[in-house]
């Protein structure tokens, strides 16, 4: 399993030289940021899943994945790689799921029907006409979306962490049994 990870993950130096994470300086030298063991990889997956839903582009998400990795001393390359699950193809369904979850928790989707439809032509009008409409949209949709993003990121992180721990443990136990059969074929 480690060979597979090492084959596809970026090197220590390439990450340390990245302009978005190099200001962490000597904090990037902690051994758990680079070692591939069950706790560190599971933590890296959790950090990457959480950072992947932080609004912004990949450099913002890479920065937060690095920050979480440094704080929690988990595998940095795994965390940075996992953030890529939120991409142009998946971001709309993820944000819709987050908004739905946030609306369910906050009750924020009930009064969304009372807002006037946001039209593209509105931006051509006077600034004083479209700022109140945009503000109403942000107030109505913002709270459920932000709440939902936090909850969905937390759920994904927890699920990813325990899934990796369980799968890693299963792989190790399976390898032990396979090795035992190879060394003791009569059992």
Automatic annotation (TrEMBL):
The keyword Secreted does not apply. Residues 23-177 form the DUF2062 domain. It comes from the Bacteria. The chain crosses the membrane at residues 40-56, 62-82, 89-107, 145-168. Signal peptide: none annotated. InterPro entries: DUF2062. Keywords: Membrane, Transmembrane, Transmembrane helix. Pfam families: DUF2062. PANTHER family: SLL0298 PROTEIN. This is DUF2062 domain-containing protein. It comes from Nitrosomonas europaea (strain ATCC 19718 / CIP 103999 / KCTC 2705 / NBRC 14298). The lineage of its organism: Bacteria, Pseudomonadati, Pseudomonadota, Betaproteobacteria, Nitrosomonadales.
């Amino acid at each position: 399993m480690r060979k597979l990870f090492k084959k596809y993950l970026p090197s220590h130096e390439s990450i340390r030289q990245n302009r978005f994470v190099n200001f962490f300086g000597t904090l990037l030298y902690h051994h758990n940021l680079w070692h591939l063991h069950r706790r560190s990889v599971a933590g890296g997956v959790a950090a990457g899943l959480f950072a992947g839903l932080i609004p912004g582009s990949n450099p913002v998400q890479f920065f937060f994945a690095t920050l979480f990795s440094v704080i929690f001393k988990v595998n940095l390359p795994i965390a940075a790689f996992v953030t890529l699950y939120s991409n142009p193809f998946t971001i709309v369904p993820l944000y819709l799921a987050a908004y739905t979850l946030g609306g369910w928790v906050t009750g924020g989707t009930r009064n969304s029907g009372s807002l006037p439809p946001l039209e593209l032509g509105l931006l051509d009008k006077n600034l004083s006409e479209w700022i109140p409409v945009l503000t109403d949209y942000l107030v109505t949709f913002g709270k459920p979306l932000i709440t939902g993003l936090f909850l969905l990121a937390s759920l994904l992180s927890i699920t990813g962490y325990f899934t990796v721990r369980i799968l890693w443990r299963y792989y190790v136990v399976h390898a032990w049994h396979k090795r035992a059969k190879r060394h003791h074929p009569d059992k």
